[in-house]
Every structure is written in C-alpha cells, then in structure tokens.
Amino acid sequence: MSKQKIFAVALNLHDHNTYDGVWHNQRERYTRFKHNLPYHAEAYAHQSDILNPADYRLNDEFVKEYFKKKDGVLAFTYTYGGIRMCKDLLPQDVFNYEPKKLWDHYYKDGIYFIDHHQSHATYALLNSGLSQSDILAIDGIGSKYRCVFFDKDENLIDLSDKLPIGWLWNHMSNLTGFGTLGASKLMGKVGYGQYSQYYYDVFETILDGPITEKKQKRFEHIRLDNIEDLAFTLQKFTIDKIKEFVYPLKSCDNLCIAGGVAYNGYMNEEFTKHYKNVHVPPAVGDEGQAIGVYQHANLILNDNIHRAETFAGKEYKYEGKEKVNYQEVAQAIADGKIVGWFQGKSESGNRALGNRSILADPRNPDIKDIINQTIKMREDFRPFAPAVLEGHYTKYFDTNSPSPYMSRICKVKTTKVPGITHVDDTARIQTVNKEFNEKFYNIINEFFMITGIPMLLNTSFNCQEPIVETPEQAIRTFNRTDLDLLIINDWIIRK
After folding, report:
1. Can you tell me the mean pLDDT for 382-388?
2. In terms of Cα–Cα distance, which of 322, 375, 318, 371 is closest to 343?
3. Which of 2-6, 245-249, 354-358, 361-365 has the lowest mean pLDDT?
4. How far apart are CA 139 and CA 260, in angstroms?
C-alpha cells in the first residue's frame, strides 16, 4: 500500500505557528503581526505531501482551496472559533464525533478529523520518545473539552468541568487588563503576591458544575484591587486542583503535558514530584496543533511515527564583514555587554531556546531592569530565564530533571545569579547540552570558563514585536535598541 499524502490543518481563532515541512515557527514572525489576526489556519505538511513548500500564504482562500482537493488526505482539527471560516465545507458527521480513546478519529472520503485535544495529546506523546505515558491536555478553549486526561491504556477521561483551569487563567487575564492571551503576563505577577482566601473562594465557584453565563458574570464583579494576590492565589488554586483531580488518575511513571496551560512552569515543576518523567514539548499550545494532526493521521494511515524537530525554521544565508570570536563574545557578556544572538533555524514554539535569543550576564542584579527598559520595552516585573549547562543545573536550581524547553519554574539555590532570579527566588530554567544545541552550548561554556558560572541569561530576540525571524529583522532590532553586539551565525556586527 502506497503512502497516503496528508495535508494537515488546524483551524483556530488566534495567531500561532505554521509548519510547511521545510520550516516551522511562529506564523507571527513572518506576518510581523502579534496576536491580532482574526482567523487563519495553521498547517503542517511533510515535504513529500500535498503542500508545496513555496506556498506559504495560509489565508482563508488558501485553506478553502485545499479543502476541495482530492489528491490526498485532508487532516484537520478546529477550535469553535476557527471552524466558522470553513464550516460549510466540512462533513456534518464531524460535529457528532465523540472520541473515547487517544487514537480515535473520524475518517471518510479523504477527510480525516481528530479532536482539538487529541492533537495536543498526540503531539506531546509522539515527540516525547516515551513508549507509554499518561497525558494531560489542558487549555482554555478548543473543542467541547477544556481538559482531558489519557491514561496509559489511552482511555480518555474528561476533566473539563472539574478542572477548567485554562478558562480561568484566560478569564482572569482578560479581567486584569492583560488580554485573553496574556496569561503569561498574569503569571509574572505570581511571585509578588500573597494568599487571599477571598480570591480562592471565588475560584472555587467555577468547580460547581459547568461554566455558565451566570458564573461568568460573577467574575466580572471580582475585586481587582490586588492583582498580585489574585495571581498568587490562582497559581495555588491551580496546583491544589491538579493534586485533587489529576494525581489520583496516575497510571504509570511518565506524564506528557500539552495545551496552553502547559506553559505554566510552576504546575509543570509540581508534576515532577509525582511522576518520574515529565515531558512538555516546545510548541505545547495551539501552535503545535497541526503537527499533532499530521502525526496522528500519519500514524493511523501510514503506520509511521513522525517526530517534529526543535529547530525547524528556515535556513538563512548571511555574510558579514567580521568573523566572530566566541571567546571574545563570552568575555564581552562577562564585562556587561548585552548580545543579540541569531543562529541557524528558528525554534519551534514560543520560547527562544538559543537560536533567536538575547544573552546577558546572570550575575548582574540590574540586568533585568536594563533589558526590560532599554531593549524589550516591556513591564518591569517580567523575569528572564537562565540557560544552564545540563551537567550543572542541580548545583544552582532545586529541580530533579533536565528542562530543555524552558518549561518549568523552580527555586534558585544560590545568590550568585540575581539577574535571572525572580522576586520569589524562582527561575524558569532551560538546560542545554551539546547535542541539543552545539553553538549555544559552546557560548555558555565559554562564559563558564571565564566566570565560573555555567549559565547565561536568555530571553527572546525582540522588542515589542514578534521574535525576529530573518537576519534583516535582527539587524533592525539591533539598531533601534541598546543591544551592544549582534551575532548572526559566524559573523559579528558592532555599532
């Protein structure tokens, strides 16, 4: 039997990642619009499949065109918002589909459909390298489910009414002025707050049956006099309910987490206390949807496990005037310089993992304020992450396993790196080994040789804009900010 051609699409409401088989990263990096496109599709197609890598414009017309094609399998999932644009093109049977197990699917006349949260689960599991795992897929919207748990036997357990944590974070983020997609900003306030019984009691009301319009109106009258306490209490509430409803479902020692709530680093770290292995993939939110759709269809239709690359962006050629000396760059960072770091292919997902990064000295207690005020131009409470050599992280951080995708927040065990230490003595760590990212490893190691500190401050390369994608964008951001040096592949640019 010949291999089925698959064109995978996720129809969604807001902006996120795209994959065309040659590169994969934030669609917003290409459009240069941040969180403000109304409707679009994210798509994923392997090089041998339907989508021509040259065809990138994934607008409504493009998607509709491919819905009508019959030269391969159209695999898709949707959110309730995203489905509006192509609803008339979909088989009505899809809307009656009720998944029971992880690999359940709808397939008819070249149309392949899996549930929104199944695509989350598939992406998390098939990129983990684990043969067996519990899976938690949790976010704010999507299908009729908001939170599902798959046990090791792949049975689906609906926790949507018991654990609508994603909806709660989204709603609170919107009410506190950070916007529906600003939950990460609200989470930045967690370290500044204290426990509030008032907020905890308000959050408890959400667990009394389904989310109703009446419940939502009650939240609209919530006191917002202390956003820090609200954030702290919401984080505690999140972990308490995870312990109450998810921990009893444990069926093995492995856990994969996916969905937008999986960006909650405090929650992910908590899971490491209960599971031996916890995997959170890099494109863990809706940006990984189409990858999961493709993987699911490819597994069922072609009996093939496809794993997505961490660095899967486009390769850019660039030739400057001066070759870089990486020891010199490390010394410059040690001397207080802030460096724009552009290497190879861009990252899959929302995190800068060492290819589109801003690097600085984590020993500098003032570096957070300097970068936030003069480069990132963002709120002063926003923290930065440490990228630490994998062989050294236990000396500096209270955690028990590597975190290559910057997915966990843990306690900092030393006062030597105040630049990456949040106000509550925590940090969202990234562990780096040579196999994961050789150039990034090498620059951290050079800094280690000079200073004795095996880490660098790492934040995304941008300034009130999507993360830079091209050398031209990197140069433009470099010129309009207080960055001191710019490294593009093997070339250095100075002001």
Report:
1. 93
2. 318
3. 2-6
4. 5
In this model, does residue 232 exceed pLDDT 90? yes
Closest CA to 340 of 465, 470, 459: 459
Half-sphere exposure of 330 (CA within 13 A, CB side): 21
SS3 302: helix
E strand or H helix at 102: none
Distance from C-alpha of 136 to C-alpha of 115, rounded to nearest angstrom: 14
Taken in order 339, 342, 343, 346, is the CA torsion positive or negative? positive
Q: Which of 153, 89, 156, 152 is nearest to 118 (CA)?
A: 156
Radius of gyration of the chain measured on its C-alpha atoms = 22
pLDDT for position 67? 60
Q: In whole angstroms, how far apart are CA 47 and each of 295, 302, 396?
A: 14, 15, 42
Q: Domains (ranges, CATH) in the chain?
A: 6-129+288-302 (no CATH), 165-279 (3.30.420.40), 326-494 (3.90.870.20)
What's the rounded Cα separation, in Å, for the pair 359 and 5?
Answer: 42
3-state SS string over 29-89? Answer: HHHCCCCCCCCEEEEECCCCCCCCCCCCCCCHHHHHHHHCCCCCEEEEEECCCHHHHHHHH
Share of residues in the chain with pLDDT > 70 (%)? 85
Contact partners, residue 411, CB within 8 Å, separation at least 6: 397, 398, 425, 426
Among 413, 414, 363, residue whose Cα is nearest residue 384: 363
Question: For residue 218, what are its two tokens?
Answer: 């009650």
What stretch of H or E contains 9?
strand 6-12
| Whether pLDDT at 407 is above 60 | yes
Contact predicate 143/79, CB 8 Å: yes
327 to 340, 359, 391, 474: CA distances (angstroms) = 15, 14, 21, 22
What is the C-alpha separation between 379 and 96, in angstroms, rounded? 45
Residues 443, 333: Cα–Cα separation, whole Å: 10
